[in-house]
Amino acid sequence: MKFLFDLFPVILFFIAYKVYDIYVATAVAIAATFAQIGWLWFRGRKIDTMLWVSLVIISVFGGMTLVLHDEDFIKWKPTVLYWAFAATLLGGSLLMKKNLIRLLLAEQMQLPEVAWEKLNWSWIAFFAFMGAANLLVAFNFSTDDWVNFKLFGGIGLMLVFVLAQGLLLSKYIEEK
Known about the structure:
Blueprint: H1 2-19, H2 22-42, H3 49-68, H4 72-94, H5 100-105, H6 113-140, H7 143-169
Helix pairs in contact: 1-2, 1-7, 2-3, 3-4, 4-6, 6-7
């Protein structure tokens, strides 16, 4: 359910683009992200830092898209978000000497230190790759292709990556 909730703005962006255009879709994505935060706040739930970061990035890049009537800004948004995640994980590791993936997931699973390190670095690499892939598609293919990639390619690549991580981590899972 959380996965679908997280995809809510992307799915609405996709539908609005297919029905209207990139500018309506951008406005819908901004509104949907605000609605997500509003819903969580109304329900008294914790609003993840990632959602706040996403709101800032969609507001800035989406706002520039709408004000300047230039779709290039919204095309940069996923890359900025992915690279912000990669930079945060990298900075945590190199500057603060903290494995942020471990801090996020330690309650859900127990892994040896070497596995936590591999997991952290694989997420850094994945987010860096996704940012580059977004730019490749955004500026070498049509906007329609990019919108399709944003929904289906992004989700597909994330799913494959998470499944691969699961397989790699499965050797560390102890049966009780």
